[in-house]
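As the next step, I needed to go through one protein, both as residues and as discrete backbone shape codes, included below for the reader:
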Amino acid sequence: MRRFIAAIAAVISITGASQAYAQESVPGAGSTVVTIIPGGATFFTKGTDTKEPKFVNYGLGAGVEVKLSRYVGIEGEVTGALGITQDVEFDNGTTSLKTANLLGYTGNLVISAANRSSAVPYITGGIGGLTLFDQASLGISEPRRSSPATSAAGSSGSTRPDAGD
């Protein structure tokens, strides 16, 4: 008799169960996404017909994206490349010096595609700029900024917001 009652209770609990969501039922990113970039590198390469040296700077940065709707968001990014003391090769020899610091800044529009899967394809485009800060040892006496019009770019990709679930 106990088995019969346990079986009836199990059948009732299974038939009465429904799907439960730990997060939102619709896949997608949250309303605000913060990105921290604790480390990276910026490589300056020497061209075949130029006299510029090649060197590497330590990179870091941060970004914030705000979702305006399920499909549209805006993001801002700030990145930096910290100059480090290193051997820099010039045409007339190698010199140990500190390279210049850089600051990059962008604003982007992010459009996400409508779909019903956990992977959300997106396309982004924006505008930004780059500032090269003064470094007397390199002959740079004042900060130099790129024109925002020459810094326009775009990219696309796919994000999987529930990868950690």
The beta strands are 32-44, 55-67, 72-82, 85-90, 93-98, 102-112, 120-132, 144-145, 153-159. The mean pLDDT is 76. The helical segments are 2-15. Residues 28-159 form one domain.
